[in-house]
Structures are given as structure tokens and as C-alpha cells.
């Protein structure tokens, strides 16, 4: 028996690099690199660890995005995944999490059988953490989110995970098929390997349209999405404050404390 | 229950949905703080809506005693769902009973705390109901006039086309996006209920009203063991230090500028001296210098203490998103161009390893020096 | 003429850059200060295929091209010059001659472990009396019928004592001069093979330069590498590959120092403005960048010629000459631009300057490179 794993990944802008145009108050997206979403790298790593142990495990990547998302899929293949599917279609544009999970779950059904679906907890551009659970719901399988430890038994069915909570953790048992969302603490993602890179570029990445996954337009895209952006804006930042300068560190510290004292802050 | 497609769901009569529900999350027999905050917020929104009431939704086993606290913090009533199968939180069990209750009683708005459990449960419910869900909200409005006032005061939004006299009471759900670079207000116009998860520490609890009473509605759950495919075998309270960044009056945070994990010892000393709590930037957490529970920012905790010391923190937008509403921000950084100085009330350009020890040393002397007119 | 990189090359660069930033750079100052060999890095690099890049899959190599290989050395050296030279010595001067001149049996025996990084390789040519002048080699191997008897010593051997497999040049017929040199495979642990001394170096302190001593080492007959008397060719052709590696190392060091200087200039204020606002300094940066880019084109051209099987000895010598001199030029300026901070160990540029110097010396000094190049001009 060979495990079939699907890993949901997303290409995201590196939000650490995004800056606000000081005049126009809009996002400057030019020159911001696109990366594999952090938590998704952990999701892929966990799948790869299973494959390390059970080499006939088959890992399929799925993502939804523009054609450029192929670059990210290539990198995931170079890390060791077997094949990749890109859902790309104008009809999918503007999807909220509900519509996105409709598309991805339809894509997963089109891939066929699976035992485990891994996804990242959330993507750094939206930070919603909703798509994973919503895919699980659409597929009618159990989910565990915030997974920090994973173990599968020799029967390749019985799974035990640790699920992180703010004040501790839970140990949860479940069976395949299921969906698990990964967090940073789960593992340390590997690098691409040189061999992996040269193999990846020889692989065919399947690109599927909405029609290919047989999904109607009342379930995907901007129009079908139950949530819409009403307004978007940038917060007003506080004005620049006062620079405390003095000849020595001691005087600087004193000057600061005197300021706080005089303003009744301390 | 018939499975609704998106289209079917749009045909629902949205006017038949009334009131505000707050999912009252509890762990080990205690209500989560965020749920009480949301009851307070729900109370505020209900008043703005006019007719509406706020209800707490309690699901679990033998948890009826928690109703009282819900009333005392402002709930008009409690929907109580009890069953031995709900003893421990499971996604599938809780989703089933809550979806059934929502379908039966039709709340207009459902709010969840954006906790690890809230963020596990709410999306699953939203998917089953085929309705919208907005994650990690930091502000909610139902009246356009209040929203407009907020937008004018705190944002760069052009508000000229917002009609303050509008009588519409749809939920305006405001949340940070793109790592806090941008704020977005999300609406859910076509489906009901309108649902949000809300970040802990953002909304205000009401003053507790001892002995307050409310309406109790017991809901009979339709649940079977075979609906639940996960088994919680153990719940471990971690030895993780309890970090209450949201309640802290003073926060001393360290970032990449510390250079190494040892640097947090100095930050701890500053916190010890000032009575503060230690915070950290994502860079410091990612470097493995300190546990993630200390992280302030878009992906960490949102804080608004009286004093925020940002030590060796450059001020990546994702960090600013979590702390810029602090009353007083003091930044210490050796790079004079660090963005943190753009929002700091007081900035010191220099070596934090030289300056912080002096602040610690002078902290106790300050009254004497000040009163004596030396500084 | 196409100067664009292939998808694979772009990905290799990205992958090695991430590896260097996360795994190599954080310990670069430490291994320099403690003169400690970065064993942990080699193990990780081996797993990623970095120890066997431009070698065929059938022997455990990664099947990459020479440009990818050169970029990998460059990216590693950007973070740490020591790490760069360890990998390049291993690949160019040990695995490459075995791949090129070895018998099928030798290839099967040594390459899988070398190319996967399980074993480390080194190269023994230089002797006290024979540096750039190979004909002066004193180390000798005598045919004893069943085995070769090896006696002599080598100095300044990169990874000496740490490496498991050595390609060693020895005289088998002194009367024939360089045509009497043969190359042999010597293994760590062979009886009579010792490493009496490790040098205390100015730079690349995380790598090792050691003396190798051979006292009646009995080498199996199978350990002759290539034909008898063809050792000089083995050595010189290996050095052609090695020079690409040293050039890449130098280029990486230059780029690293340049990047550090940009960062510093943007943050350091003097006379009320940051250093990058001073035109005199920013013009010098423009010159540095131009030299670095020129060095990169010379090097990539040489690597591309090797990849295509075209003659590349002269181009490799030019690349080594120009990249190493650029490294010295850029790192010296980088220290200068950092002022007093450039001279102390809080900033990496002083290490980079010390590391850069060796690239003008080993695997043929700049003077030897000029001999090679001028010899071709006036042939």
C-alpha cells in the first residue's frame, strides 16, 4: 500500500518586504518577491518526511493562482514532491475563502484518491486560516488545525497528532483520510536539492481551468463569493516623535525618564 | 439538511435573521476572556442595531453554570447545548450542533474569538452554512455614522461617499491584511449569518454586573458518536510561561537588533525593573531567540499598553500593526532610518546594550532627580 | 549570444543562497575566529547535492552544469570564503580527476561516497621545493611489484588531514622531469601517511592547510590514477577546473563585501547624512560594482566554455586572475568605507579582506596566471 498525499500550497508576496507609498498610501508591490507561503513549507516538509520513511508515498501539490505560481510549484517539486497541479482561470479570480475552498476541493476530487491532505495553517497575505478547514468540510473529511507533531502508524491509517493551543496542546487520534494544517513548530522545511532542481524542470505541471475541474461559476470567483471588500485603506500612523539625544548614555537615559515623568507617564 | 449551493443560499430571506450570537468558548470549565470581550462588543452592536439582542452560545457538557457569567458580562440570553459527546471540543461535533442551532434560530451575526479553537471551528461552520466569514477582525461596526467617524479619525480612507445617515445595519468587519500593511473592511451582503472571528484583546469587556439575569434557551442537540472522527486523547496545559501581553501596562520588546538570544536577558531586566512584560518581534521569534508566545504583531498578539519599549526593533509593518496604538512608544535602535522612529513618541539612536542598562540604573533615581530639579 | 540563466541555474542560485544565509553565514565568524572546520556544513551540503554538482548521476553526482556549480561556490563564498574553498577543492581537485582519469573500478569505488559528501576529497601537489614549478617534486613512488612505495611530503594542502581521499602527485621517473610525474589515490588511514602540521593562516581560517607526510606508504597497484607518467597532465587539467572554483570563491567574497558595504552606507551617518549620500563614495561603489559584474561575465564565460567542451585553460586563468584581484580591490575598499568599524570583528568585512588575499595566491598565483595568459598571446 502506498500513501497518497496532497499538499495545498500558495504563492504569496513576502509581506515583510511590502512597503506603503508614503504619498499615495497604497501598497508598493513592485519588486516584492513571491515566495512559498511559510506554513505551507511546513506542510510540504511533513509530507516529505513521510516519503523519506515510506518511499513509495506519492505527493501531489495543488495550488490556485496565476500562471506565475508555477515557479513556486517547481521549487516544491525540487524539494521532493512528485507532481503538481495549478488551478488557473480568470473565472477563479477574486475568490474569497469559501469560493477558494470550493475550487481547491473540486481540484482535489479531480486528482482522485488521497489519504492525507496537508496545508499550511494560514497564508501570510490574508492570514485567515480558513481555507484548510473549509476544504475539509467540502470534502467531508475530519481536520486537525495547528498541528505541531505528526505520527502515522505502520498500518498507514492511524494518525496521532499534537494540536497547539494558546495554553497548551491536545493529543488527537484520527484515521485517514483527513486534512491537517501545519504550523512552524511542526518541522524545519528542507531546501531544494540540486538533483531535485534538475528533475523538477523536466516534470509536467498540470494546469486546470474551472471547466477542467467541473465547477460551476456560481461557486467560484468574485461574484459568487459571500464576502466582498467594502473598503480598504491604510491606518494613519502617529506623527514622528521626539529624538532624545545627549552626550552620554546616562544622560540620554535621564533625559528620557525626565520626559516621561514630566508628562506623568511614569 | 439539504446541501445548499451558493446560489440557493443567496435566495434566503435575510430579513428572517435576527440578533447577535457570540460563541462562548470555554476551556477546563472557564470562559475564555475573548468571549466575554465579544459579549461586550455584541452588546454595543445590538444597541446600535436597535431591536437586536446579544446571546451567548454555550456548547459542551455540564456547562450550564457558565450562563450566569455570560449574563453578568452583558448577554441578554444564552443558547445552551449540552451533550456528553460535547465534553471535549471536536471540530465535527461542535460544527454539527452549532450549524443546527443557527439554522433553527437564524442569528443575523455570529462572532467567535480568533483563538486556535475559534479559527478551527468558525471556517468549518461557515463552509457548511455556505455563508461568509471574516477572520481576525479588529473592529466591527453596524452603523455607517460610527464607521465614518472612525475612518475619518484613524484612517486615510476617503469618506466623502459614505452616507452617515444610512439606516442599513449590515456588519462592517475591519481587519488587517497583507501583514498589517493594509486594512480592509469586509461585508457579507448576500448570505446570513454574517460571521467574524475577532482577535483577543481588541474589544472591551463590559463592567461585570453581579447577579444579572438572562433568558436561557436549551437546545436539544442532534448528535451521534459516529459524526466525530477525531479522538482527543489528552489535553495538556503547557508549562509555557503564561504571557499576558494583552493586559500588560508596560511592554519591553526586543527584535533582531539584539543580535542574539542572550539579548533577551537584558530585555527581561528592563521588564523586571519597569514592571513590564517581555515582548518580541517576529524576526526575534523566527530566529529562535524567544518563544512565539511573546510575539507582538500581525501574526502575534495585538497590544496597546501605556508604554511600549521597542528595543532593536526596526519596525517592520507587520510588527507596527500589532503595537502602534500603544499610548507611548519608546524606540531604541542604532539605525536612525529605522521605520520604528516614524511612529515612536520618543526615539533614541544608539547602542541598546549601552542605553538600556542606564535606563535600568536611573529608573529608581528618577523621582529624586526630578524633584531635586537635577533633570 | 545568450547571457540569460536557465530555470535550473536560477533555482540553484536561490537554493544555495538560502542555504548559505541560514546555515553558513551564521557560523562564518565563529569558524574563522576558532579556526574550526565546519563539519556540520559539509554534511548538510552533501545531502543537498552540493558536494557532487557537475558530475553524472550514475556515480552519485547531481548532474548539474558548470555554471550552476560556479554559482553555488559563489553563493557559499559570499557568506563564508572557507566553506567555498572546501567544496571547490573537493569537487575540482579530487572528484574531478578521479571522474576524468579513473578506471571504472576506481570511479565505482570512490565517487559515490565523494559525490554524496560522505567522504571529503583533497589534492596533493605543492611541496616545500615545488610550488608553481611542478617539475621540482620530490615525493616519489617506487614500483615494488605488488605495490607502490610512496615517500615524501606535501605542504599547504587544503583539507589535509580532514579529507578521506587524496589525489597525490609523485615522481615515478625523475629522469623524465614533468613527464615522470604520476598521480595516485591515497586514502586517509593508510599506514605511513600522517599529517604532522596544520598551518595557522591569515584567512580562510575555517578551512585547513596542512602538511602531509608519506613514510613508506604501500599503495595498492590499483591506486595509480591515470596513465604512468601522465600525472602532470592530471594535475594541470584539474587545476583548470580548480581555477574556476577559486575565481568563483573570489567573486563571492567580493559580492559579499560589496553587499555589506551597501547596507552599512545606508545606515551610517556622518556630517548629518548617510554615507551613500556622499558622491565620492557612491562613485567608488559604482566602480566596484562594474568590476564585480565584469568579473562575473569573464568567469561565467569560462565555465560555459568548459560546459560546452571548448578549450578553457586561458579563460579559466583570466577568470581566476581578474576575480581574485577584484576581490582584493573590493574587500579593501569595503574595510575602508566601514572606517574604524571595518577593522574590528563586529563587521564581517575584515574577515572577507583576509579571505580574499589567498585567492590571488593558491592554485596558481596571479603571476602564474599571467604566465599562462601571456604564453598564449605570444605563442
How would you characterize the overall build of this protein?
- The complex is a heterotrimer of chains A (266), B (375) and C (379).
- Chain A has a single domain, classed as 3-Layer(aba) Sandwich (Rossmann fold), CATH 3.40.50.620.
- Chain A contains seven helices and 15 strands.
- Chain A starts with a strand and ends with a helix.
- Chain C has 379 residues and is an alpha+beta fold.
- Chain C has a four-stranded mixed β-sheet with strand order 1-4-5-8. In chain C, strands 2-3-7-6 form a four-stranded antiparallel β-sheet, covered by helices on one side. A two-stranded antiparallel ribbon of chain C has the order 9-10.
- Chain C is globular and about 80 Å long.
- Chain C starts with 6 loop residues before the first helix and ends with a helix.
- Chains in contact: A-B, A-C, B-C.
- At the A-B interface, β3, α3, α4, β9 and β10 of A face α1, α4, α5, β7 and β9 of B.
Output the number of helix runs of chain A: 7
Global outline of chain B = globular
Low-confidence stretches of chain A: none
β-sheet strand percentage of chain A: 25-35%
Give the CA-CA distance, first to last residue of chain A.
Answer: 67 Å
Largest sheet of chain B: 7 strands, parallel
Overall SS class of chain B = alpha/beta
- The count of DSSP E runs of length 2 or more, i.e. the number of strands of chain A, is 15
Task: For the largest sheet of chain B, list the strands in their spatial order.
Answer: 7-11-6-1-4-5-12
SSE arrangement of chain B, N to C: HEEEHEHEHEHEEHEEEEEEHEHEHEHEHH
Order of helices and strands of chain A: EEEEEHEHEHEHEEEEHEHEEH
Mean pLDDT across residues of chain A: 92
CATH architecture of chain A: 3-Layer(aba) Sandwich
Distance from first to last alpha carbon of chain B:
73 Å
Number of domains of chain A: 1
The biggest beta sheet of chain A is recorded as: 9 strands, mixed
> How much is the radius of gyration of chain A in Å?
23 Å
Which keywords apply here?
heterotrimer; B: 375 residues; alpha/beta; seven-stranded parallel beta sheet; five-stranded parallel beta sheet; 25% strand; globular; disordered N terminus; C: 379 residues; alpha+beta; four-stranded mixed beta sheet; four-stranded antiparallel beta sheet; 10 strands
